[in-house]
């Protein structure tokens, strides 16, 4: 049986998931690919750190021990970050090695460059694990749905924030406590700011929308807002309104251009994505031929992510066996503009504290009316010290109209505080 050696760049949460799957399922993996697949070396920063026991894997803190090793056929980059990961992947491809990466930060910023280097060298570059952990969404967009023109895609594609919002909703727990738990479980990025501020999901959305619409979308094109301002109170009000709050990633191909946005949103409880809880991710894709499709599974963690990485390794092993190269180019043959956030159209939930006295509500209503916004529902709760808390829910309006209203509201003398403004997705997709 032909031997295929893997060089791991990184041996943390995902790297150890990869070695564990390769060990546990070795008989099936080797039989299915017709090759004996083994991890030969792994690059780490700290050689003294305790690792999963595996006597066969040589550890090194020097990248060249792996990148220049002629016996290594496939480099698996699971170290994260932009540099030195970008340079290592380019070196590996130029050295004639195939590459698997789980690194969405890198792909969302430099995907085009890396795919071009792979193509020039006639080598494979696979990245299934970069979006939604174990869910085979990249393969679906690149292959299974490729006969379609995709019109929209909406998903929950960050496990950490979905885990946090689910625990806050179902168990009434505090944001900080649940974030710490998600980090301990290996869901969060090394710096969880990118999870909670929506950047991790924005990077994944850039990758998905480039593939779905065959146009280049980078992280800079994606509007991103995180969940750090969502409170238990907002979650309770959402419940009163028949909704849950989720961090949504939305991409639409529209006449004015590609709309790409990530933000928390109130979603009706009967929407299929509303029941996606915990670390689970789901992506809803609409194609002109296939209609509506939905992909669901664990979006983070050692084994689910390792599952996607090992599947890529196996595909490369098959390609090597048949002396073929898989899909290397990004296929961005269209050049669509990106839609301005001013023209995003959604409903809004606005929670404010105002003086509880006559005419205040009429003035609030006037600010919205002047911008052409109408209300869908209103909740008012009496509060102490002659202050009232009001939740205003609007019908869909343009983001520019909402900004005009918030400017007027901010200069209103009877306003005590705007607690939060959260978008509301009630339209179909
Ligand atoms: P992690 O647990 O922090 O592991 C990173 C590994 O890379 C560690 O072994 C670390 O060495 C090594 N490393 C980092 N920088 C290095 C450098 N400059 N030189 C040498 N070694 C270096 O990260 P992870 O959660 O496995 O994530 C890895 C990648 O997968 C990231 O791109 C992430 O976005 C992506 N991803 C993660 C998940 C998930 O659920 N965790 C899911 C999908 C995709 P030490 O062990 O010595 O510190
Ligand atoms: N931090 C990411 C998440 C890991 O929580 O979804 C998977 O990409």
Structural topology:
Elements: E1 2-9, H1 13-24, H2 26-33, E2 35-43, E3 58-60, H3 64-67, E4 74-77, H4 85-94, E5 98-101, H5 104-120, E6 125-126, H6 137-144, E7 150-156, H7 159-171, H8 175-184, H9 193-196, H10 199-213, E8 223-224, H11 232-240, E9 243-254, E10 257-268, E11 280-287, E12 291-298, H12 302-321, E13 345-355, H13 360-370, E14 375-382, E15 387-394, E16 397-398, H14 399-410, E17 415-424
Parallel strand pairs: 1-2, 1-4, 2-3, 4-5, 5-6, 8-10, 10-17
Antiparallel strand pairs: 7-9, 7-11, 9-10, 11-12, 13-15, 13-16, 13-17, 14-15
Helix pairs in contact: 1-12, 4-5, 5-10, 7-8, 13-14
The protein binds NADP nicotinamide-adenine-dinucleotide phosphate and L-homoserine.
Key traits:
Alpha-Beta Plaits; Dihydrodipicolinate Reductase, domain 2; elongated; 17 strands; 11-stranded mixed β-sheet; 429 residues; Rossmann fold; 14 helices; alpha/beta; 6-stranded parallel β-sheet; single chain; 3 domains; binds NADP nicotinamide-adenine-dinucleotide phosphate; binds L-homoserine
Descriptive overview:
The chain has helices at 13-24, 26-33, 64-67, 85-94, 104-120, 137-144, 159-171, 175-184, 193-196, 199-213, 232-240, 302-321, 360-370, 399-410, and strands spanning 2-9, 35-43, 58-60, 74-77, 98-101, 125-126, 150-156, 223-224, 243-254, 257-268, 280-287, 291-298, 345-355, 375-382, 387-394, 397-398, 415-424. It has 429 residues and is of the alpha/beta class. It folds into three domains: 2-134 and 302-321, NAD(P)-binding Rossmann-like Domain (Rossmann fold, 3-Layer(aba) Sandwich); 137-298, Dihydrodipicolinate Reductase, domain 2 (2-Layer Sandwich), CATH 3.30.360; 342-424, ACT domain (Alpha-Beta Plaits). Strands 7, 8, 9, 10, 11, 12, 13, 14, 15, 16 and 17 form an eleven-stranded mixed β-sheet that branches. α1 (13-24) packs across α12, α7 crosses α8 and α13 packs antiparallel against α14. The chain is elongated, with a radius of gyration of 24 Å. The model has no long low-confidence stretch (mean pLDDT 94). The site of L-homoserine has 11 residues, from α7.
